[in-house]
Amino acid sequence: MRNIPPQSDLLTYQETAAFLNTSESSIRRFLQVDPSFPPPIRMGQRVVRFSKTKLIEWLELQSECA
Question: Average pLDDT, whole number, for the chain?
Answer without folding.
Answer: 89
